[in-house]
């Protein structure tokens, strides 16, 4: 019984979402996985959680990590977009960061969704309804305690 390539691709995406090391190990096992590794969706799904987004922190012996992170950036990985937006917003005070938070949120990055929601609440010109929509979406995903987050904004 042959398993369709689409099924293998879904498995590859699931692995990419959880561990880049496991993904590369998987790609070394067969040619099909090596080919699938070049798919744009894989790079957008790829987990970069374990790596710091500061290429200057890595030495010459870690050049492959820097290349990996750069490739994720080139393919608009939402985690990389989020990390850059945090740096832009909190360190450089760059207003463009809000747009990047929105891009990452629309791509499914939860932290960006949360920040977009909070920024919308503190800056009603961005649209309070839109902000609540982002926060409610996170609440429905049940991955964040939105009740506690919302309570912190209410003044008795």
From TrEMBL:
Against InterPro entries, the record matches this protein to: At1g67623-like (IPR040338), At2g35280_TPR_dom (IPR057136), F-box-like_dom_sf (IPR036047)
Ranges for domain At2g35280-like TPR: 61-150
Q: A Pfam family matched by this chain, by name?
A: TPR_27
The name on file for this protein is At2g35280-like TPR domain-containing protein
| Source organism (scientific name) | Prunus armeniaca
